[in-house]
Amino acid sequence: MSTAPAPTWFGQPKGLTILFLTNMWEQFSYFGMRALLVYYMTRELLIAQETSSFIYGLYTAFAYFTPIVGGTIADRWLGKKRAVIIGASVMAAGHFLMAFEPAFYLALATIALGNGLFLPTLPSQINDLYRAGDPRRPWAYNVYYVGVNIGGFLAPLICGILGEFYGWHWGFGAAGIGMLAGLAIYLAGAKYLPPEPPRAEPEVVRASRGSGRRDVILLLLAIGLAVTVFRGAYEQIGNTVAFWAGSGVDRAVAGLTIPMTWFMSLNPLLVMLMTPFLLARWKRKAEAEREHSPLQKMAIGALIVAAAYLLLALAAALAGDGQASWLWLAAFFVVFTLGELYILPNGLGLFARLAPPRFGATTVAAWYLAIFTGSLTAGLVGTLWSGMGPAPFFTMLAVIATAAAGFLILLDRPARRIVAGADDANSARPSADGPKEGDLAQSI
Asked: Which residue did the predictor score with more confidence, 264 or 82?
């Protein structure tokens, strides 16, 4: 019987489609609730703006910190599938709790705790769908990343309209229903997912700490530091870039003003449009044996983001005390999104690829910890906005992104050696971490 895999989405296994759709609905619920949060606190709960902003920042930071604990729990005790199911159920409960004003803080804590179990364990299952040398494996994370952006694109439109026009609790309820939809898809498609790997027993943990995997851990720490620096510039898209777009950009077209949120929706829309073409390009380069290494792609992405900020610096400089055309802002989002697709999905895929045996969820959680530290760094960088003009500030962001690219390039040579060693070790190891693609052929 043939063991050729049956292609589905972009030539990937059906299990990836299940993970993609589950992630899409989870992101719909998360971004749907987040789109309403500040408005709900200030308009409905009558919480002061300063306090609301603090609560919002604390919640979003906590949501990216809990995966470290949740990933460890999944690897040591629950297992990946059970952690996803429990995490999704807890998050859905939290979203529905948002419908009750006295339970507001309990609801936020519940969502963040459920997210800690769900967020690292879902993408850590992608790696187990492929053999170690499968060239399509890194591209799978770009496909997965599209799910993030479809959910992020739809959430403000659906949950936002329901919340603002029909009542806040309708918007929060829609977010909860989205989470349940993701859970239902995950359960229905469980047969296409890899079987549960063995738990990381205490003696395995000790052996892993004393093994030759220290080079992997050091590499991941170094990449995490580079990503933290990069996010100091990247995360300005929702901070200082939004400030400048509100006051420094002429958004008038034919007598109408383009809403600022329409520009923000360009980012997830462009991710969906660009990803198929980018994957096709990488496939052609791989077939010609000219594909860049993961860290080279990440460095290219950081440089492209740097170019996007230089575009804004030029626009601000040319505008002077006036306003720049909205076309500059649209061009910025096109270039910015292209860079994002080079660096962020490849970083997530590399963390999953280098995960030590039986520590997949914990290692992926470390990627989200870099998002946490990077978001804090972006907050510190953003405090410089008021003391600098737009052009110098955007130039500084380009320098920050370029510095991250330089750091990633320095890591490329040792990373290639470490990745090759990890792939060889995974190829030689029995399929304890789940079946590979040939083993799943009959069910796919």
From this structure: 82
